[in-house]
Design brief:
This protein is α+β, with helices and mostly antiparallel strands and about 725 residues long. A hairpin with a 4-residue loop joins β2 and β3 (about 45-55).
Length: about 725
């Protein structure tokens, strides 16, 4: 026969050898419990619920992708409403690829390396097999192996061998044959082009081949696995489970029409399974339940220590494809544990809301005043968080039919919303087209892109997560019709209260006393707004959110979240078409700064004493304390001068000591050495005197500072 026929037969034989016997069984698969509802979560999982009437002992199954088996079987829950009961659930064991290949009687690694079927046929030696010839003859028996026979080269002179190479006259070629022992005891052999198919006749060998072939598949995890359900009692049965699912996303359209605004929301849903969804109820939940990957369904084997046999037995199989002798020869007597790539589970714990305590020297740190209450921001920040516990949950208005590996854009919102067009002035005086929107739809809105339409497309923005009644300002383009210029800027601090504070002792020790100044910070900014628009505009100017303050300028003032997630005051005014307007934004804020006693300077206290806005009694105390601090600073300055003088004397003593060392043994007159020694002694006396003076000055300076803090104590409350 020609080479083409041999190639066809070789492919047919390979197909028959590798074809899984389960294929025919799947054609007669039991009824599949239909999918009725899907709930998709933000955490990358979906809850799949199958429901339908079942009969007692009737065959029933679930179809689950193999790579979803771990999730599904760890979370599977049975829900019954009409007396249905189930027993065990069975499914094909999912072996690791290495284990499946090791159990196989065929060397698939050699097949992959050589691209030849001969290693697979040879590995069937000894197996009970079924062989079908090209003539339609079916033989039962055992494969003995693969051999080669010699035959004259076809074509004689000028002929070619099976590879198409020319051969000389009387040459022979070697052809592979399968040697087969039939159940009748006949020994027969067949060329490959005489065989239609050959494969194991016993189920264990066929199952091992089936698993090994499945392990070769690059996308084997996407294959559907059948989970058999044992039905004990009939009735209405519902079974739910979790499986990995694409995260659903939402996009919005804000449409201004006929003087009103309407929010449209569309959710993007993916069916990435191999199963068509037929009239499935879909729910989209903006929740993030904890979910992790854990290798659950693959069989696990406990490692056992290998002990060499003591009684002469030298074969003790362990696992597949090896034995104890091989393990012992490899020195594998111990055991260990390893972790590699693949499914894994991890957890982490954190602590939130932990207050930090710290102390430090230095002065002038600014914070919100605890004595001057300006504005109502603190009250607003303590509003009840109950409304923020709502989670977005969308139910599709009608069941969804979606073919396998298709996606759909599902409408989930179509409701009126409070929204207003504004012109927003940012910190760089750029004017942006923006919207002021309040979520009064009645439910939370998940974050997503937002397209704005106002008689046409106006721009895009990003809608952050918005809870019920949240308000935001969202820019979506540039407003070229409004020009804003900075006018005058005034900045003033008005001290109101100065006091001396002695903090109570803590477990870390006594805290240092400090001088506190509570003052009002006033800022007044003016802006010149010019309109080139054909219609009136609502222009909003930003002012930073104040810790303990308020905006006192004209116009409407509202504290709103901006696109950067921070809160700002927005001062909004109506700017008529084609006109110019000067708008003042004034803020006042109650602040405080403090100076620890050890770092408090005379200049700071004196500056406060000269401020006529403080009460006269307070200023008098500050004046006396400043005098004492000036005295302390003067004494410390004198001490520093004497320390410089000590440096000079130290240098003089060192020079005299060097001179004495040079005179020793030089034969110089003793009177010279005596004179140098007397000078060094006199310098030492001056050094001692300076040391005494410095100690006295430092003690007097400390006493003066202590007297100053005592005076400031009159301001304690």
């Amino acid at each position: 026969m020609g080479n083409r026929k041999g190639a066809v037969c070789l492919a047919a034989a390979a197909t028959a050898l590798l074809a899984p016997s389960a294929r025919a069984a799947r054609d007669d698969a039991p009824a599949v419990l239909p999918l009725r509802s899907v709930v998709l979560y933000e955490s990358g999982v979906g809850y799949f619920e199958r429901r339908g009437p079942v009969q007692r002992h009737a065959p029933l199954s679930l179809l689950v992708p193999q790579n979803h088996l771990d999730d599904a079987l760890m979370t599977l829950v049975v829900l019954t409403t009409d007396g249905a009961r189930v027993g065990a659930m069975t499914f094909p064991s999912v072996l690791a690829p290495e284990a499946a290949l090791a159990e196989s009687p065929a060397p698939f690694d050699a097949f992959a390396a050589e691209g030849s079927i001969l290693p697979l046929l040879g590995a069937m030696a000894g197996l009970q097999a079924r062989l079908v010839t090209m003539d339609g003859e079916t033989l039962e028996g055992r494969v003995i192996g693969v051999a080669r026979v010699e035959e004259p080269a076809a074509g004689g002179a000028g002929g070619t061998d099976t590879s198409g190479n020319p051969v000389p006259d009387a040459a022979t070629v070697q052809l592979p044959v399968v040697v087969f022992l039939t159940d009748a005891g006949a020994l027969r052999w067949f060329k490959l082009d005489e065989i239609e198919s050959v494969g194991p006749a016993d189920e264990p060998a066929q199952t091992a081949l089936d698993r090994a072939v499945a392990a070769l598949a690059q996308r084997r995890g996407e294959e559907q696995e059948t989970v058999g359900v044992s039905v004990r009692e009939g009735g209405d049965l519902a079974i739910g489970y979790l499986a990995e699912a694409p995260v659903w996303r939402v996009s919005y359209r804000l449409v201004f029409q006929d003087g009103a605004a309407r929010m449209q929301g569309w959710a993007l849903v993916h069916n990435d399974t191999d199963e068509d969804w037929q009239n499935v109820a879909v729910e989209l939940v903006e929740g993030q339940p904890n979910s992790y990957l854990f290798p659950f369904v693959t069989p696990r084997f406990r490692h056992r220590e290998v002990v060499p046999a003591e009684d002469g037995l030298d074969t003790a199989p362990q696992l597949a494809g090896t034995n104890a002798d091989q393990l012992a020869d490899a020195g594998m007597y111990g055991y260990g544990y390893g972790y590699g790539s693949g499914s894994s589970y991890g957890s982490a714990y954190g602590v939130g809301g932990l207050g930090m305590y710290g102390t430090g020297a230095g002065g002038g740190g600014v914070s919100a005043s605890q004595l001057l209450a300006i504005g109502e921001l603190a009250t607003e920040a303590q509003a009840s968080p109950e409304q923020r516990r709502e989670l977005l949950s969308y139910h599709a208005t009608e069941p969804l039919s979606l073919r396998a590996h298709e996606s759909a854009l599902v409408p989930v919102i179509d409701a009126g919303v409070s929204a207003e067009r504004i012109s927003l002035v940012d910190d760089a005086l750029n004017v942006l087209a923006a919207i002021k929107i309040r979520n009064d739809t009645g439910f939370a809105l998940r974050e997503g892109p937002l397209a704005v339409f106002d008689g046409g497309f106006s721009g895009q923005s990003w809608l952050p997560r918005m809870y019920v009644d949240d308000a935001r300002i969202l820019p979506h383009g540039a407003d070229l019709d409004i020009v804003v210029e900075q006018g005058d800027w005034e900045d003033e601090e008005q001290p109101r209260i100065v006091r001396w504070v002695r903090p109570p002792a803590t477990e870390w020790g006594a805290a240092e006393p400090r001088l506190e100044e509570h003052y009002v910070h006033l800022v007044r900014r003016s802006y010149v707004l010019t309109s080139h628009a054909a219609s009136e505009r609502n222009v909003c100017l930003r002012a930073p959110a104040l810790v303990n303050g308020r905006v006192t300028s004209g116009g409407s003032v509202e504290l709103l979240m901006a696109e950067d997630g921070c809160e700002y005051y927005h001062v909004c005014v109506r700017l008529p078409a084609g006109e110019e307007l000067t708008q003042v934004v004034a803020t006042e804020e109650g602040l405080q700064r403090n100076w620890p006693a050890s770092t408090l300077g005379a200049g700071t206290v004196e500056m406060l004493a000269e401020d006529e806005r403080l009460p006269q009694a307070t200023r008098e105390v500050l004046r006396r304390a400043a005098e004492a601090l000036h005295e302390s600073d003067g004494l410390l300055a004198d001490a520093v001068e004497r320390q410089y003088a000590m440096t000079t004397v130290d240098t003089e003593i060192a020079r005299h000591r060097a001179d004495l060392a040079a005179l020793a043994g030089s034969g110089a007159d003793d009177d010279v050495a005596t004179e140098v020694a007397e000078r060094m002694i006199e310098a030492g006396r001056r050094l001692d005197a300076l040391t005494v003076e410095i100690d006295d000055l430092q003690q007097r300076a400390a006493a003066a500072r202590e007297r100053a803090t005592g005076i400031l104590g009159e301001l304690a409350e």
